[in-house]
Write a structure and sequence with these properties.
The protein is of the alpha+beta class. The longest helix has 25 residues.
Length: about 200
């Protein structure tokens, strides 16, 4: 004769325990959300004019790992003493395209460099060589992009934004303005870590 099967007795408190667990779910979800948000903090407001009186040189760029691909003829770039295009690799991540324009001082970088930087960056960047005030860097201003989920492609600005630090105007590469601003901030951090001039 097969003995009858015995089932474990349900704990009378089980419903209460389930209710407790369910009550804990919303706070745990909120905690998880808070942890996730803290891993990608909202950056401080980006400013295109970064305080700094240092006079940077091409040697300073080389010392932070910038690799120059092209040095431009600066004829027509008012007030500039040099301009170069290339890439810089941050401590973590892929190489990023940058253009560095050198001026005699921070004041001159702001006075002479702001309008040409505005022309070369952002959604309304001038990418037509016939319309650009300074034409030497127009081929590098442009980059090819492919629309997400589409086979179509087009041309957009390589540099969505820029920053002025010391005597430098820095055009920063990135997929969006936010990416470019983060890349500007990253390269500024490396420049800030340079030994003091004359030190």
């Amino acid at each position: 004769m097969i003995p009858p099967m015995k089932f474990p007795r349900l704990n009378a408190c089980a419903p209460a325990r389930i209710a407790c667990v369910l009550a804990l779910v919303p706070p745990l979800l909120l905690l998880a959300g808070a942890v996730a948000c803290s891993s990608s903090e909202v950056p401080a407001e980006f400013s295109r004019i970064a305080a700094g009186t240092r006079t940077y040189t091409s040697a300073d760029l080389e010392s932070i790992g910038f690799k120059a691909s092209k040095r431009y003829d600066i004829a027509g770039l008012a007030g500039a003493t040099a301009a170069t295009y290339g890439f810089w690799r941050p401590p973590v991540g892929d190489p990023i395209d940058f253009e560095f324009r050198f001026y005699g001082s921070h004041e001159e970088a702001i006075k002479y460099g702001t309008a040409p930087a505005d022309e070369a960056t952002g959604d309304d960047a001038v990418l037509d060589v016939d319309k650009a005030a300074w034409k030497a860097d127009v081929p590098e201003r442009r980059t090819l992009f492919r629309a997400v989920g589409s086979g179509s492609s087009g041309i957009r600005a390589r540099y969505p934004d820029y920053v002025i630090r010391g005597n430098l105007v820095i055009l920063c590469g990135g997929a969006t303005a936010e990416h470019a601003q983060a890349n500007c901030s990253s390269v500024l951090s490396s420049l800030d870590a340079l030994p003091a001039q004359g030190g």
